[in-house]
Design goal:
This protein is mainly alpha-helical and 119 residues long. It has 2 helices and 2 strands. Strand 1 and strand 2 form a beta hairpin. The protein is rod-shaped, with a radius of gyration of 24 Å.
Length: 119
């Protein structure tokens, strides 16, 4: 690694950093997708519940009795918010991936150019 120029070393460090960011984004996206699936499953289960049946909503460490309509609204709002976050993460992921590939190509080109004695 000492034979590499400081510029190439810096680019490699940036690649590693971008890779870590992409992994973090992927993890967050997976968590949000799981939360969306759970909320959709809860909505499915509520479709079989009578309108006047007691329904409970978990708020932090407390369970609160709510009307079915209020719980459905809360779940749908949660899904909408999570899907927006997922789209935002996908956009970040795409931009980061593009930058990663571009930088990776530059590093590869610099390393290949260095072998014959150029750059």
């Amino acid at each position: 690694m000492n034979a590499l120029s400081p510029k190439i070393q810096n680019q490699i460090a940036m690649l590693q950093q971008m890779q870590q960011q992409m992994q973090t984004i992927g993890g967050q996206k997976a968590q949000y997708e799981m939360a969306v699936r759970e909320a959709k499953r809860a909505i499915e289960e509520l479709s079989d519940v009578a309108e006047d049946a007691p329904v409970f909503l978990s708020v932090g460490t407390v369970m609160m009795e709510k009307k079915k309509d209020a719980v459905l609204t809360t779940l749908n709002d949660k899904i909408e918010t999570l899907e927006l976050r997922i789209k935002s993460l996908e956009k970040q992921e795409g931009m980061l991936s593009g930058k990663f590939e571009q930088l990776q190509a530059q590093v590869k080109q610099a390393l290949e150019g260095k072998a014959p004695g150029a750059a």
